[in-house]
Write a structure and sequence with these properties.
single chain; Jelly Rolls; alpha+beta; 3 domains; Heat Shock Protein 90; elongated; four-stranded antiparallel β-sheet; about 450 residues
């Protein structure tokens, strides 16, 4: 921050006043140069190393707080040397091996620059160094405030984790019953349906294993193709397309209503099992809100996790128009349950925004694409937008973006989203204005789908 003239001036001062080898001191790391409140009659110049100043206060970790940082080319003892109070206001300690030189208070004035006193000669440098110290001190304070805020945030999350532990325990008991029940129903259902025939068993297992694997858009396209190819009723074509079938025969058309029933039974049990797994992950995330999640797989398909999340919230999303354009076929290192939780939270957030106040037809777009070595997912809604004063705080606990009414819950949706994204080494950004809010999530790729 020094100008060319001030650098030349400092070089003159160093050469003139601080080049006497008899007045040079070498300090080892941890050695003290000045003691706080002790008398000081010297002005020091730091030729090499870094020195730290302490005033006795402690930081948030209980360690001595650093209040002064002096690097190579800095002066030490300015206040005590030039003021009437000849006492050091800091304890100055060598952060590493240092070399300093000094002048005494009775140092004769060398008048080559036209000044009549040391104070007059040094004043421009003193002002510049004090301004620099102020800048460093302000930056130190900002860093301390940031660290303090992070500690407080961790403490809040840990407290929330403890508070939710009891609730999570009870929910786990209920979820265990649901999980065992769905597994038993799946097993018994297959046994009973097998008695009706192999074709019924085939469609039951199709629904049980894949669920609603076909998106609404793909089903509409396939319905049109089936109508044209087989000249069947539109309702039948829609049902067959929804099942994910591309070829049909007379038996399928004749017994379609029966096959649809067993397929829907399978998809219902599939969705029940999926929802149960998701709930287990939510409960686990609440319990471990203050701990790092480590259950990661090397290749998780982002598009699959988006589709599974959509199934979980599909009933709620029926109130809005949803468009999905999932082009990213790559994989990431991640936790499938965690990803489902990210997308379901963001989808519900978009839904609530659309329901809040939407002058147009409520609409949500979900887009995935591969950009360089990343997979990007964008969830876009045409709701009223997030107020600008809330944008910097939306990932904090107990912050809601809703403008009207109250919402039951802990206010942890976006907080958990941020945490889960961090655990996946991803980033999230938000751009919001009236009529359009975009949440963009990016993850590093680990591979490409072979399908």
């Amino acid at each position: 921050m020094t100008s060319h003239n001030s650098e030349k001036s400092q070089q003159w001062f160093v050469k003139t006043y601080f080049s006497d080898e008899k007045k040079m001191i070498r300090l080892k790391e941890g050695e003290t140069l000045l003691e706080k409140d002790h008398r000081n009659d010297r002005l020091f110049y730091l030729h090499d190393g870094v020195m730290i100043g302490y005033d006795g206060e402690l930081d948030i970790h209980g360690m001595p707080a650093e209040k002064l940082l002096c690097e190579q080319g800095g002066f030490i003892g300015l206040h005590s040397f030039f003021s009437k109070r000849a006492e050091s206001i800091f304890t100055i300690v060598a952060k590493n091996d240092c070399l300093v030189s000094y002048i005494d208070r009775d140092q004769p004035v060398i008048t080559e620059v036209g000044a009549t006193s040391l104070a007059e000669q040094f004043m421009p440098l003193v002002i510049e160094r004090l301004a620099y110290r102020q800048e460093v001190m302000c930056e130190t304070i900002r860093q301390q405030e940031k660290a303090s805020a992070q500690v407080q945030e961790y403490q809040r999350l840990a407290t929330l984790g403890q508070l939710s532990a009891g609730v999570a325990h009870e929910l786990n008991n209920a979820l265990a019953v649901i999980t065992r029940g769905s597994e038993w129903l799946s097993f018994i259902g297959e046994k009973l349906i097998s008695r009706r025939g192999e074709r019924e068993k085939e469609y039951y297992r199709l629904g049980l294993e894949k669920g609603h694997a076909v998106s609404s858009r793909d089903a509409r396209k396939q319905k049109k193709l089936l109508k044209e190819k087989y000249s069947i009723h539109e309702r039948d074509a829609h049902a067959i397309a929804t099942m994910g079938l591309t070829e049909i025969d007379d038996d399928l058309v004749e017994k379609l209503s029966e096959y649809i029933k067993v397929w829907e039974m399978g998809t219902t049990l599939h969705d029940l099992r999926l929802a149960s797994e998701h709930c287990e992950h939510v409960v686990y995330s609440m319990k471990t809100l203050g701990a790092k999640h480590e259950s990661m797989e090397d290749q998780v398909r982002v598009n699959d996790s988006i589709r599974q999340a959509y199934i979980l919230v599909e009933n709620k999303l029926r109130a809005v128009k949803v468009e999905m354009d999932l082009q990213a076929e790559g994989t990431i290192r991640g936790n499938r349950g965690g990803l489902i939780q990210i997308w379901s939270n963001l989808m519900k957030n978009a839904l609530e925004a659309c329901q809040e106040d939407c002058s147009d037809i409520p609409e949500i777009k979900i887009i995935s694409q591969e950009i360089d070595e990343q997979i990007e997912v964008a969830i876009i809604d045409n709701g009223p937008g997030i107020p600008s004063d809330l944008l910097p705080k939306i990932f904090q606990p107990n912050v809601t973006t809703k403008k009207k009414g109250l919402s039951f819950g802990l206010g942890l949706g976006l907080t958990l989203v941020q945490r889960l994204i961090d655990e996946h080494l991803g980033q999230i950004e938000v751009d919001s204005q009236p009529g359009k809010t975009i949440f963009k999530v990016r993850f590093p790729k680990t591979g490409v789908s072979d399908e």
